[in-house]
Every structure is written in structure tokens, then in C-alpha cells.
Amino acid sequence: MGLFIQEADVRLFAIALLSSTIMVGAANADCTTSINTKVADGYLLGDLGLVGSNDWVIQGGGTYACGAWSVDGWASWGPAGGTAIEFDGSLFYDKDIGPVHFQGAVQYFAVNLDDSLGDARDDLVEVYADVSLPLRGSRLTVAPLVRVAELIGLDDLPSLTLVEPGARVSYRLTDNLSVNAEVRDAINVTDQSDVIRFDATLAWQANERTAIRLGWQDTDQTRSVLSLGMFHQF
After folding, report:
1. What's the average model confidence in pLDDT over 14-22?
2. How far is Cα 112 from Cα 123, in angstroms, rounded to an integer?
3. pTM as predicted
4. Comparing C-alpha atoms, which of 82, 91, 21, 87 is closest to residue 54?
5. CA–CA separation, 182 vs 173, rounded Å?
6. Alpha helices in the chain (DSSP H)
7. Which of 86, 100, 174, 224 would give a disulfide with 76, using CB separation of 3.0 to 4.6 Å?
8. Rounded to whole angstroms, what are the CA distances from 74 to 77, 89, 97, 169, 181?
């Protein structure tokens, strides 16, 4: 059994996340706001090798970034209900340390098991550290990486420790067209199992602030998912 919290604690988390955003924005005037949305023919829980929905979903959210800090809100909805419906909140910290890029994150996943979106007992908190080494060429960037993540089930779902070696690859086909891919082996240290997950995106930069994205997600334990979406920075 994980750590049980009351539903009020979920609201306190959201307030704390918003407060962090406000403080970061006040401390750094160099801030950006962006939104993203997509339609997909399913929903995969990649690190766990599970299918959240075999039916189509609409997913998207917004990001507010100031310097090294960013706050993200994200939602998923689909006619299948259940785990196709989800709300997430995340706080990220990104920093280059010499040639190494570091990202740390705290994420809250409001999960909808058995129509329980308002019940915090089946929710998850994830804390992770991601370290990568980008090796850049004129058009190609390859970044070996390792991510260590702790998934904390608040009551109904178990807690897990994941160690995820992998790599990110980015290739600029033209000035407006690029391919980005990531592969990770999500090794579940707790259950002595693993899931190989793969994500790829073909992105067309329509203008300086807007991109159209064709995505593909797959794991070695599920079917693949295709998506079409857009990104816009204000």
C-alpha cells in the first residue's frame, strides 16, 4: 500500500504548483507560455507498458516557463472513459552543467480508475532525474541518457522505482521539417521487469511560433499509437 492522502491534499498540491509558477514569473521576466494539443487513436502508459485507451483520445495542455523552471498542466479525454480521462500537473527544472543536460521533475497524475477522477486514492506522484549528453552535429543530435524515476502510489496503486537508460535523436531534414525520436528501457527495479518504449515525432514548423506534429508511440508490450497535433508559443 502506498501513502494515503485526502482529496484536500490534491487541492493543496495544485495551489502549491500555482504559487511556484507565480513566484518564478515574478523572479524572472524572461517567460514564455505555450499550448499543445493532439488527437490520437489510443493512449499508452509507456513506462508501464499499459494501454490507457484503445479508443481515440484528445490530449493537450499548456506550459509556462521562466528560465530553468517550467510548470505544465495536461489533460486527456476519450469516449472510452476510465483511464482515457486524466489530469496532470508538473513542475520541471532544466539546466546545462558543462556538456551534460539535467532535468528534474515532480509530477502529479490524477488517474480515473473506475470513474474515480475526484478520488485521490488511485492517483500517482512521480519524481525523476534525467541526465543526458547531447552530441551535436550540423543537422543531427544524439543524446545518450539515463532517467531514474520514483512512482509513488497514493493508496490503490503500488509504488515503483524505474531506471531508464536510452537515447534521444533529433535530425533536421529542412529548415522547417525535423524528426525527433526517443527510446528508453524502463527497468522496473521493484518488480524486476522492464518495458522498452519508443516515441517519434515528425514536426513541421509552420511559422516562428507554431508547429504541426505527427507522432508515433510504441512499446514492446502494447500496440502502437498514432497522433496528429499542434504546438503554439505565445
Report:
1. 52
2. 8
3. 0.85
4. 82
5. 17
6. 7-27
7. 86
8. 11, 6, 28, 24, 21
Q: Note the CATH architecture for domain 7-233.
A: Beta Barrel (2.40)
pLDDT at residue 162, rounded to an integer: 98
Q: What grid cell was written down for 72? A: 505544465
User: Which among 108, 107, 111 has a CA at the least distance from the CA of 122?
Assistant: 111
Alpha-carbon distance 213 to 230, whole Å?
6
CA atoms within 13 A on the CB side of 227: 28
Task: Indicate whether 18 pLDDT > 70.
Answer: no
41-66 pLDDT, tens per residue?
A: 999 999 999 999 999 999 999 999 99
Q: Cα(71)–Cα(74) distance, rounded to whole angstroms?
A: 10
Q: How large a percentage of the chain has pLDDT more than 90? A: 82
Q: Across the strands, what pairs with 36?
A: 61, 231
Q: CA-CA distance, 137 to 208, in Å (whole number)?
A: 22
Beta strands per DSSP E along 22-139: 31-40, 43-45, 50-53, 57-66, 69-77, 86-97, 100-111, 124-132, 135-136
| Rounded Cα distance, 86 and 107, in Å | 13
Per-domain residue ranges of the chain = 7-233
